[in-house]
Structure formats: structure tokens, C-alpha cells
Amino acid sequence: MTTTSELNPQRKPIRPNSLRRFLSIYIDGVLCFFSSWIIANVSDHFHWVLELSLVFYLVEIIFCKLQLWTTIGEFCVGIRYLTSSSKQVVADIQIIHPKLMLNPFLIIAGSLEFTFSVLFFSGWTFFHQILLGNYVFSNSISITFWIGEGILFFLSSVYLWSGLKLTIVLIPLIHLFDFLLFLIVLLKWHLIFHANHLSLKRWPHLLSHYPNIFEIFVIIFGIWSLILILGILISKRQLINS
After folding, report:
1. Of 141, 143, 139, which Cα lies nearest the Cα of 123?
2. For 181, what's the count of Cα atoms within 13 Å in the CB-facing half-sphere?
3. 106, 131, 135, 168: which could join 102 in a potential S-S bond, CB 3.0 to 4.6 Å?
4. Which residue spans within the chain are E strands per DSSP?
5. Total domain count for the chain?
6. What average pLDDT does range 85-112 have in this prediction?
7. What are the strands of the beta sheet with 79-84, ordered from one edge?
8. What are the backbone dihedrals phi and psi of residue 81, each rounded to the nearest 5 degrees, phi first?
9. Is residue 89 part of a domain?
10. Is 49 a domain residue?
11. What is the Cα–Cα distance from 184 to 226, expressed in whole angstroms?
12. Which run of H or of E encompasses 196?
């Protein structure tokens, strides 16, 4: 039986480097922490977060290794197992998918966008109410809003990891929209804080020492948006997948 890299039998398989392996572990860790955070928030047992995250991570690693499946993090950064021409895994050897040999910036950027995605998906656990215009909306609208934000940045990470040509259009639009939204929210941050005083009561120490924490977040987000857009423009030759 001959072995080959997936989708390109003529190309010599390339093994993943330390950066991709680190980012795959990072993504798995973020996902496990997110899952345990949601469970802890629902059950109101926040002291279990780290232990539950570690359990989830170990279960994923052990299960995937036994089945010779890539973990979610490995799959996201383009790591696959060596397969035969019939697409069957033939050995415990990991390679990079031939269509996903992107430059390090795109892989790192996708991982950071995924981090923003998870952060926004968790937004409703911090802000049970949201302020749009002069109106305060309740928990159900807040959950819908934060899920929508999470989906936008998840799509952004997927486009970066996949090297899709539409990345050069989609991501600047997403970041421009969100940056303008955050600027509007920043102007009424004190009202949002007042509307969410019950859900934010778990964080009095953090908020008392960093009263401008949202302003800091907006500045970091704006700087990252500029870096990301410039990086995509420089890396546009890497965006080869349709």
C-alpha cells in the first residue's frame, strides 16, 4: 500500500513545526476552558473551572490519540494524519494538509481571532443585559447579540486558517463594524455598567482596580485590527483557496 499526503499524491508530506503544535494545544486549551466556564457559570461553581478544563483536555487528547483522530486544535491549524490514496489513516504520523501550508502570520492571526470568538461567545456570562441606543435589552437579547459576535469572529478565524481569498474583504469589514460598535458602546460604558451591576458583582476587585478596562480592550482591539489588516494585505499571495 502506498502512502501519500492528502489531496496531493505527488508532493512530499511536510511535518508540522513547533509553532503549529503549540497553537493546536493553545486552541484545545481555550476550547476546554470555554466549555468549563459555561458549565461553571450555569452551575455557579466557579472554583471548578480549572479542574474541569484539565479533565476535558485530557479526555480529548486520550480519545483522539486512541482513534488516530486529530484534535480540534490540530485540525484548525492544518495538521492531519498521514493517509493512503483511499483516505485511510496508515500510521501515527502527522503532516500538514497540502492546501493549508500558510505563512505563520495567518496561522497565528486565525488563533487570535478564535480567541476573540470564544471571548465574545462568553460575553453573556459577564453582561446579562446590553445597551443599544438608549434602550437596555434583557438576557435573551444579550445572549443572541454575543452569539452573533462570536460567530462573526469564528468565521474570521476559519477564513484565516483556510487561506480563503475572501479573507481580504471579509475580515476588514468585520473589524471595522465591531470597532465602530465598540466606540459607540464606550461612550455609554457607565450606563452599561449600571445595567449589568448584578452580573458584574462577581468582579468587584477587578473593576475597582481597572475602571477603564473596556477602554483598554477597545484600544487593544483597534491596534490588533490595524495589524491584522496590514498582515493580510502583505500575505495576500498566500490566500489561494477559493
Report:
1. 143
2. 13
3. 106
4. 3-4, 79-84, 89-96, 130-132, 135-137
5. 1
6. 79
7. 3-4, 79-84, 89-96
8. -85, 150
9. no
10. no
11. 19
12. none
- Beta strand pairing call for 79-84 and 89-96: antiparallel
Q: Is 136 helix (H, G, I), strand (E, B) or coil?
A: strand
pTM of the model: 0.82
- Non-local CB neighbours of 165 within 8 Å, separated by 6+ positions: 239, 240, 241, 242
DSSP state of 91: E
- Asked if 125 contacts 150 with a C-beta cutoff of 8 angstroms, the reply is no
| 32, three cell numbers | 476546554
What per-residue string of b and e applies to 99-111 under the rule 16 or more CB within 10 Å gives b? Answer: ebebeebbbbbbb
Answer whether residue 48 is part of any domain. no
| Residue of 182, 184, 123 whose CA lies nearest to 151 | 123
Residues 16-29 as b or e (16 or more Cβ within 10 Å = b): beeebbebbbbbbe
User: In which band, very low, low, confident or very high, does the pLDDT at 34 lie, cut at 50, 70 and 90?
Assistant: very high
Question: Is residue 136, in this structure, part of any structural domain at all?
Answer: yes
Q: What is the CA radius of gyration of the chain?
A: 20
Residue type, 142: S
Q: CA triplet 151, 103, 91: central angle to 5 degrees?
A: 85
- Mean pLDDT for 184-209 is 58
For 31, the grid coordinates are: 476550547
Q: How far apart are CA 85 and CA 138, in angstroms?
A: 54
Q: What is the mean pLDDT of residues 157-169?
A: 90
List, in sequence order, the alpha helices (H) in 13-67: 18-43, 49-67
pLDDT at 119 over 80: yes
Average pLDDT, the chain: 80
